[in-house]
Write a structure and sequence with these properties.
The complex is a heterodimer of chains A (about 200) and B (about 280).
Chain A lengths: L1 H14 L1 H16 L7 H22 L1 H5 L6 H32 L7 H26 L1 H23 L14 H25 L4
Helix pairs in contact in A: 1-5, 2-3, 2-5, 3-5, 3-6, 3-7, 5-6, 5-8, 6-7, 6-8
Chain B lengths: L3 E10 L2 E10 L4 E5 L6 H8 L7 E6 L2 E2 L10 E4 L11 H11 L5 H10 L13 H12 L6 E5 L7 H14 L6 E5 L3 H7 L2 E6 L2 E7 H7 E6 L1 H5 L6 E7 L2 E7 L10 E2 L2 H11 L2
Parallel strand pairs in B: 3-8, 3-9, 6-7, 7-8
Antiparallel strand pairs in B: 1-2, 1-4, 4-5, 9-10, 11-13, 11-14, 12-13
Helix pairs in contact in B: 3-4
The chains are: A mainly alpha (about 200), B alpha/beta (about 280).
């Protein structure tokens, strides 16, 4: 597991510099410009989407085959992917938290910082929970398109059920940011189980 | 103990079947897997490594079924036909990663391999030539005290000088009686130097699995006229190549008439003739 994490750390630092640059720019903008709080969720969601980018990269480089020649099981390979994703999302949340706190200090933020952060973290966990099993099952590219279809489908479904005037106010009261975070955390854990089961059966190479 | 045991291994794809292969790599031996492109060598190796799953048959590696392969991977040195190491990492970073992966990682062996193979420590894997990528992969396989090497086309892409050096290193590896190698290659001359046994795969079927020396003593090379060859029993002749200057054929020594002049046949000549015979 440590070897795989080290490899992902090196790969992320070397190959995903542009993503970190975007995050740095977003952070700076949210801290210094009012009415830019909508960038903060990106700081948490973006690291979550890197899981599928890494899976795509590994498949292209054939590292997915090579990794299984190391003394690790398939389950460990999948677990590492989730641990790495969780760490990246938490780093994004930490960065988002700092930005939110600084915005609050500058008087840009009126909402509860912790609730906002919980919502961001929930979104950060939700995205890889859907993307990663899809990427393992169908490949990273196909998986991404399928996720888009799923999201569009859910949005159409919600609008059909609640009518055209769908607003956050129509969301049930019990669905607080904390409940949402718990639900997404549980979904993330379930997604890990599903991915492990998919990868266990998958033919590699 | 046998390093690898394969019984009745079958894997079906549309248009290709690896068909009931039985193969053993005895402990302390080197088995060379030869065959044309698409004969099933890589499929066989991927089945061994549990990367793909068989339709039927049994595999055991170092005494463990493939379902328990993770338990013995520490003792396997593996080089695949496409090395697949992370493209962004250089040899130094790869060494650190592999040190975390293997309990028995031998840093001095790794450094020694990098020096012997002239692998630059600071260049990204993606920037290396194909030959150097393969050498790096070999260095990784040889640096954690493996008991069994599984090498899929590990010498392809290497220049003759480096190939010769790799063959020497592999021969050095097999000096330890507990060490075994399964190596697939198109370059039969390398296998000829290295192997105790030769396994010949053709269109998914294992045609020959025999000790190299037995193969060399069983067959001889006939050179003469078409009339002289016709005088030999048909079952003795494996394959014939006719040219304006005469006929060359691989001939079974035991079936040929006593006194027939046969010169020694190389494994490469035998392999080519067997492959042509089966077309």
């Amino acid at each position: 597991m440590r070897a795989l994490l080290r490899k992902d750390l090196y790969t992320a630092v070397i190959s995903l510099r542009s993503v970190f640059l975007i995050m740095a720019v977003f952070s700076a903008v949210t801290i210094f410009v009012p009415n830019t709080g909508f960038y903060i969720p990106y700081l948490v969601v973006l690291p979550g989407t890197l899981a599928s980018t890494l899976i795509n990269l590994e498949t292209r480089e054939k590292w997915n085959v090579c990794a299984l020649t190391l003394p690790v099981s398939r389950r460990t390979v999948v677990t590492e992917r989730y641990v790495c994703t969780l760490l990246m999302v938490l780093c994004g949340a930490l960065l988002g938290g700092v930005c939110l706190a600084l915005r609050a200090l500058r008087g840009f933020e009126s909402a509860d910082i912790f609730e906002s952060l919980a919502m961001c973290l929930a979104a950060g966990l939700l995205v890889p929970s859907i993307i990663v099993p899809m990427a393992y099952k169908f490949g990273a590219d196909k998986g991404r398109y399928l996720v888009m279809f799923v999201i569009i489908g859910v949005m159409i479904g919600l609008m059909t059920i609640t009518g055209e005037d769908f607003r956050m106010s129509t969301v049930p009261v019990w669905l607080s940011p904390w409940t949402l975070l718990l639900l997404c955390g549980a979904l993330f854990a379930a997604s890990w189980g599903v991915s492990a089961a998919i990868y266990e059966k998958k033919e590699i190479g | 103990m046998n390093a690898i045991e394969i019984k009745g291994l079958t894997k079906r794809y549309p248009g290709f079947t690896l068909d009931h292969v039985d193969l053993t790599v005895p402990g302390g031996c080197v088995v060379g897997l030869i065959g044309e492109n698409g004969a099933g060598k890589t499929t066989l190796i991927r089945l061994l490594l549990d990367l793909i799953r068989p339709d039927s048959g049994e595999i055991s590696v170092l005494g463990r079924p493939t379902a328990e392969l993770a338990a013995v991977k520490e003792e396997l040195g593996i080089v695949l036909d496409e090395p697949g190491l992370p493209a962004a990492l250089n040899a130094r970073q790869l060494g650190k990663m592999l040190r975390d992966a293997y309990r028995s990682w031998d840093e001095s062996a790794w450094e020694d391999c990098l020096r012997r193979f002239s692998i630059p420590a600071d260049r990204k894997f993606a920037e290396l030539s194909n030959g150097t990528k393969m050498k790096l992969s070999l260095a990784a396989a040889l640096s954690h005290n493996a008991r069994l090497l599984i090498l899929d086309e590990a010498t392809s892409g290497l220049d003759p000088v480096v190939r010769d050096e790799v063959v020497d290193i592999l021969m050095e590896f097999t000096r330890d009686e507990g060490h075994s190698i399964l190596i697939s290659s198109h370059i039969v001359s390398d296998l000829e130097k290295l192997c105790d046994y030769i396994a010949f795969l053709h269109k998914g079927k294992l045609i020959v699995f025999e000790e190299k020396d037995v193969l060399a003593s069983e067959y001889g090379l006939f050179r003469g006229t078409a009339e002289e060859l016709a005088a030999l029993p048909a079952e003795a002749v494996l394959h014939r190549v006719e040219t304006p200057y005469g006929v060359t054929a691989a001939v079974r020594r035991d079936a040929a008439a006593a006194g027939t002049a046969l010169s020694p046949v190389s494994i490469e000549e035998l392999f080519v003739m067997m492959a042509k015979e089966m077309k």
